[in-house]
Automatic annotation (TrEMBL):
Residues 129-326 form the D-glutamate N-acetyltransferase-like C-terminal domain. It comes from the Bacteria. The lineage of its organism: Bacteria, Pseudomonadati, Pseudomonadota, Alphaproteobacteria, Rhodospirillales. Keywords: Plasmid. This is EBNA-1 nuclear protein. NCBIfam families: DgcN.
Length: 337
């Protein structure tokens, strides 16, 4: 997809910052593409960029309204339709990462047709995928996995790509969610792929490559999450990772959106190895990425030191402290293979 920017980020009336994580991810990694944000009354998220009306954004050259929110089921609330139609009438295209297809809303489809505007459904791919085969392929792959949803799997993979490239390594971020596709301009939203083809879609995203090349595959959900474990497992099998990094948010007691308790880092390591060995018997952990945003400096460092000591792996907050130690471990582990 070639989605025109600059963007006007639409947050609707989401009730917390995580509800706007698609928009936040785009702002964090593609700030220069983002002109401003538009929020409805009651919205509790803020991207830290200028608030604008549709008219103001159009006057400043916004080319696409991005519906930058996530919610259970990926639905488009009915009361958001009027804002989207206004944007189309003001000359903007519209891009959405929700499961609901924009053209399935008659008012949106009619406005787009009348004004000659494009509708981008980033979560949906027209690509046809084969079933996964699990056959060993050349190149190296790293998958980020999590103790829960929204714990930093995408940010960790992007941080790894940035640092590995800075070191002269051959590495590419591979997007498996709508936000990652917005950021990288390529990839597939795996949770919108028919279940039989999830592992095959990931094999397509990260195909055979040069032996020294690393694909850094964005993880989704958690093998322990009752809502999304099926997606996480198919992704693990298709990624066929040589290495994985466990991502964790230490202040949670239950997983997002459910009452199930958060699994431990060790439980995720053990289950990832056990399930991942189906397509790569040599799978191994190389680091732990912990989101320490809720902690002060000293508390954050103490948390990371404790995790590193408990698991015998480098632990870091990729955004706060970087991923250097994890990459050091990765290169050490695979230097002679």
């Amino acid at each position: 997809m070639n989605i025109p920017h600059p963007y006007l980020m639409f947050l609707g009336d989401v009730q917390d910052q995580l509800g706007a994580k698609t928009a936040q991810g785009i702002v964090d990694w593609r700030r220069d593409w983002c002109l401003g944000q538009i929020r409805l009354e009651g919205c509790k998220a803020d991207l830290g960029i200028p608030d604008m009306t549709i008219a103001e954004a159009a006057g400043q050259g916004a080319r696409t309204l991005v519906v930058g929110v996530v919610n259970a089921g990926g639905v488009l609330p009915e009361h958001w339709t009027s804002v989207i139609v206004q944007a189309i009438e003001a000359g903007m295209d519209v891009a959405s990462g929700l499961h609901t297809r924009l053209e399935s809303i008659p008012a949106i489809a009619e406005a787009a047709a009348r004004h000659g505007r494009q509708l981008f459904n980033v979560r949906h791919s027209d690509q046809r995928f084969a079933t996964g085969k699990g056959t060993k392929r050349s190149g190296r792959r790293l998958l980020t996995v999590g103790t829960d949803c929204s714990v930093g799997k995408k940010y960790t993979a992007l941080a790894l790509e940035k640092e590995m490239r800075a070191r002269g390594m051959d590495a590419d971020f591979r997007a498996t969610g709508q936000t990652g596709v917005f950021i990288s301009g390529r990839g597939v939203a795996i949770d919108a792929v028919v279940a039989d083809f999830i592992s095959g879609a990931v094999e397509w995203i990260a195909p055979a490559a040069d032996p020294a090349h690393w694909d850094l595959i964005e993880g989704q959900g958690s093998l322990y999450h009752p809502s999304f474990a099926g997606v996480s497992l198919g992704l693990l099998h298709g990624a066929q990772p040589d290495a994985f990094v466990v991502c964790h948010e230490p202040t949670r007691s239950t997983m997002r959106g459910v009452q199930h308790p958060l699994p431990s880092i060790q439980e995720v390591i053990d289950l990832t190895i056990r399930c991942g060995q189906l397509t790569n018997p040599a799978i191994r952990p190389v680091g732990i990425a912990i989101n320490t945003k809720a902690y002060g400096e000293d508390e954050a460092r103490a948390c990371l030191e404790a995790a590193a000591k408990a698991h015998g792996l480098p632990a870091s907050d990729p955004i706060r402290f970087g991923v250097g130690e994890i990459i050091d471990r990765l290169t050490e582990e695979f230097a002679t293979e």
